[in-house]
Amino acid sequence: MTQSDRHRHCLLLKGSPNEVLSDFRQLCEHFSSVLISAHDVGQYDELLASPSSLPPLKTCSFKHARQELGSSHDAILVDLSQGVSASAFAILAGTVRGNGVFAIALPNEDWLSMTDQDLARYLPWPYEPAQVTSAFKRYLLDQLQSEASPFRSVPDQVTALPALSPVNANAPLTKEQTDAQADLFAEQAKSYVLIAPRGRGKSTLLGDSIAKLIQAGKRVAVCAPNQEAIVSLKARFDQQMNQNHISLPFFAPDALISDSSYWDFLFVDEASMIPLPLLMTLNNKAEHALFSTTDYGYEGAGKGFGIRFCHHLASQKTPHKHALKTLTLNQPIRWGGNDPLENWINNCFFLAPPENNANTIKDVDKATIEYSKLTGEQWLTRSPLLADTFQLLVSAHYQTSPDNLRWVLDDPSVSTHVLHRAGQVQSVAIMTKEGNLPNTLSQEVMQGKRRPRGHLVPQSLLAHEGIENAGQFTYWRISRIATDPSLQNQGLASQLLAQINSAAQQNCDFLCSSFAATIDVVSFWLKNGYVPIRMGTAKDHASGGYSLMVVKPISDSARHLTSKWQATFIEQFTLNLLLQYSDLPTELILLMLGQCSPAQGKLPTLAQLSAKDLQDIALFVEHHRPFDSIRAVFLKATLSLALQGQLDSQKATHRLLLEAALGRNTEHSRQDAKLAGKKAMHQSFKAILSTLLI
Hints:
By secondary structure, the chain is an alpha/beta fold. The protein folds into four domains: 3-153, 3-Layer(aba) Sandwich (Rossmann fold), CATH 3.40.50.11040; 175-328, P-loop containing nucleotide triphosphate hydrolases (Rossmann fold); 366-597, Aminopeptidase, CATH 3.40.630; 601-692, no CATH class. The protein is built from 24 helices and 19 strands. The strands form three sheets. Strands 13-14-15-16-17-19-18 form a seven-stranded mixed beta sheet, with helices on both faces. A six-stranded parallel beta sheet has the order 3-2-4-5-1-6, sandwiched between helices. Strand 14 and strand 15 form a beta hairpin. Helix 5 crosses helix 6, helix 20 (611-622) crosses helix 24 and helix 22 (652-661) crosses helix 24 (677-692). The N and C termini lie far apart (84 Å). Residues 296-303 have low confidence and may be disordered.
């Protein structure tokens, strides 16, 4: 059998749910694993409740589609009549076996004119689905009807497709799988990442490897977001273990972290569905850890997983030969090679990596760069630019998913700003318009009674900071920004922000953004004139960092307010360094404090030094006043120096000064500063204070 013999059947069904279900049942009469998905599967549940012939069908709403990751189906029907979930669509397509069926149901009526119930998830207050004409539906329908589309209408006489061969859970591993397994069993790396598109046999490889390691006497643990995600893995494991009656050693992430055991091997499947902080902790639970994920597409976090988490793994210290080894699988196993459905999904949602382009621009000629601002249906006439833009976003941002395509095309508050040259996107920013909330709604948000869709910045300022008038202003929030990796550090993103700044004049009060605070990202926004006004108190689920909110005032009233908001932020931030941010990196604290110019030169209360404080510092520096007796004053002095930009985050002794002031463990920083013991550390403090303060 050739690879092309195992391509999936792609079908379009039209009619009412009853008509569609009848045709679909006939098509799948000989199939065993059949799924129906829709925005609301209630109509199908009612139809399926009545006695009927085989095959048995199960249903799954779009919002539960992620639970099907790791599953395999003979046939799936996706009913788009009520609405479209781009991510669910892509996820489900990846679970259909070779020679199986992926069918789409559409109504007989004019689908484009029908209200899309799934659209509500993408719209900010006060928009409702009935008010918005969906450009994304137009785009999707064009893709379904294009010459490149694999989808064909079902003939009037529906004929049942032949039954699929049973899945052979004990099929021999392919050469790719065997090579990857050999790399793993060589145990030369602390951590392994198995990256591949869907359908490449990752789960089979994991199940086979786990069984062989246990048979070899290794202590092995398996982790995944849920047990539904490892159905294929477990099937291969059970087959390999045969009559040994050994259960798969599965743990939920939280349970594994709380378990005191240390393993020889830890396997984490569907790793990109698990928050990065948990993954970092899991990596320390075993001598060798393997993390399996999809590089492009269906989860929406896979590429960013590769960017951020792999960088963390590669930089870890380990006695093994390698800190990280990456294992790859390219040849599809679940379906045939060059599968038309896979190709169409990747092209439609821009999930596949762009092909290597010999003409890729490697330098920046600012005189030839074009700037474009596009909204909604304008993208429909700029297909090549849309593809380039989204492939850049997918490769650069850890949270880009197929749903973001619908958001950009259908949210009336969204505009996309692009720098491009010779048809190639160099830098892109997605901006959302927020604010202008009615006073009554603002009050209810501030009181915690309402939480309208969207409007992240004004809602946060109202609900978390109690800024009573925050809702009345207009905000342009930069939600995503990315630059071609080959052109980074050449000022393109800053140039794009300057273009947005020009467009914002007379059109908004504030430019703003909110992002996971890391040193490089914070530095970028500070360099471009944005001011921190709020930091979240809980770490982001996906990024593992604290969220930082920054603004750049545009109107005169905004400039006055920004000074007030910044002063409040500094006051609270200096206190919260003791109360809530014990794990915030020292370099990041110094960077933020050094850029927070106090309004009118007034330092926050915690950083104000009295004459008595200065006397106490002098007694410590110049005489024999014990360090422990001036701890409170030492904190005030350190914060004062930091806020006035006199501490350098690149100097080990300055980092050590801040960590001691905040009561943190100073052992690592003492070693970096090449200081042996407390006495030497205190002497370095005296030298710094003598130079900068006294």
